[in-house]
Amino acid sequence: MTHSSEETLYKYNADLAPVKASQKTWTAYNFLTVWMGMVHNIISYEVAGGLILLGMSAWEAIFTIIVGNLILLVPMLLNGYQGTRLRVPFPVLIRSSFGVKGAVIPVILRAVVGIGWFSVQTYFIATIFNSLLALLWHGWTHVGGSFNFLGMNLTGWITFMLSWFLNVLILRHGMNSIKRFEAWAGPLVLILALGLIIWSVRVSHGFGPLFHQGAHFPKGQNLSTVFVPALTGVISSWATLVLNIGDFTRFSETQRAQIVGQSLGLPGTAIVFSFMSIMITSGSLVAFGHAIWNPITLLTHFHNIVILALGGFALVIATISVNVSANIVSPAYDITNLFPRHLNFVSAGIVAATLAIFLMPWKLMQNPTTLFTFLGAIGGLLGPVAGVMIADFWLIHHRRIHVMALYQRDGAYSYWHGFNLRALAALGLGVSTSAIGYFNTSLHWLYAYSWFIGLGLALVVYWVLSRIWPGEAPELSSTNEMVNAALSNE
Fold it and tell me: Which CATH number covers residue 290?
């Protein structure tokens, strides 16, 4: 593609362009390790514990996690297929359904969620650093004295900026550096967790008491009343990645690579890691007299500098791994899409990371319930977006998308002044249904299950509206032929 032709395209630059054949180097192993890196984190570790605290038995918690991840895998593969086939990132792909201008709405929503979670996870890494440094050097907590800036002391600022820098260091080398980092980070965390498994088996002489403990639901509740809300919680932690999984799969060697890699990595890794977390916690119940679900707290009970250092290193690597992959890749592409003439993937990622600082997560985390309610509500808005995406590609266009028209202001996907009113109506209905459940306590289940309801409702509504009010369908050759034509001069 020549420089002159690039200038005529709408919201286009090298990072938003379809990837070249030479860039499609991600194998099934890469997708497996990416999911390892994203799943092997403290929040995932504590999910099983949260289900047991709701009253489930260990086996019921594991079953819930299995079902949730198998459900989640379906839209991951459907949207992952789009990325591999079309070779474009989420902000470009979404133009076929929402219009070349209307796409900015779901793009901004996804960017806000990504930056919010990046901010929180970066601060979370800083708290790990602080906890470990305080254990290794008792004078650490007194460094800086009474210094306070914007509500955080000197040690907090030192560890937060260190955490921020480590995340950006990986990001600044682009998607290939993320692939290389995840290739060793994901397996490393799993290996270190296996050490704790061996310890747990030795002290418990088997699986441990948690696996022999039955369900203990509060009065008036049982598995049937707890299961679906718990299932929603399991799914919601990764629901946002459903939208931009194509940011990764566009680099896949083949469809088989992303399908096999994701199928092994998402449900497989999540199930194994959850099983391991229950086993380790079960060992802590035997060793220390009470169940310890927080891995940082567990490490402090060993009073061993080597274990603290290795365990702390594993926790930092695990959290950076999920932060870079799940929380900053999408905002980097999303912000590039907003300012393609001025920013690329790396510079836009740094902008997103900088915006995360201004969110001051140390203040937000003073009331984490409010923070996660806000981020969860925004994330719930993305369920209808996923429904529209799936319906558009699989049911409306039947996998045939005019790739170059995604970069044309007045092309096949300009719809009405750049907006696809059918997609916006489906999104609006999905969001409003969730909002009704939020404000009407008698219909709270609509809000509790908003991701499921929003995705399904938006998918059906968008499909129906597109059937009764079809837009103009351009004559298309096969998608792969158009992608090859688009890249023929590169």
Answer: 1.10.4160.10
Give me 296's structure tokens: 């940082």
Answer yes or no: is 470 within a domain. Answer: no
Which range marks the domain in which residue 356 is found?
A: 3-367
pLDDT, tens only, 310-330: 888 888 888 888 888 888 999
DSSP 217: P
What pLDDT is stored for residue 77 in this prediction? Answer: 97
CA–CA separation, 334 and 115 (whole Å):
11
Per-residue pLDDT, 490: 44
Beta bridge partners of 152: 149
Total tally of structural domains belonging to the chain: 1
Write phi, then psi, for 475 (nearest 5 degrees): -75, 125
Residue with tokens 């792969």: 480
Rounded Cα–Cα distance for residues 485 and 305 (Å): 59
Question: 4 vs 437, which has greater pLDDT?
Answer: 437
- Measured from the Cβ of residue 269, the count of other Cβ atoms closer than 10 Å reads 23
The answer to whether residue 195 sits within a structural domain is yes
SS3 of 10, please? coil
Helix, strand, coil % over all residues of the chain, rounded to 5:
75, 0, 25
| 151-160, 280-289, 445-454, 459-468: the lowest-pLDDT one | 445-454
Predicted TM-score of the model (pTM): 0.87
Per the domain annotation, does 399 fall within a domain?
no
> Across the chain, which distance is largest between two alpha carbons, in Å?
71
pLDDT band at 72; cut points 50, 70, 90: very high
Residue 386 domain-assigned?
Answer: no
Give mean pLDDT, residues 23-29.
Answer: 94
Q: Does residue 475 carry a pLDDT above 60?
A: no
pLDDT for residue 454 is more than 80: yes
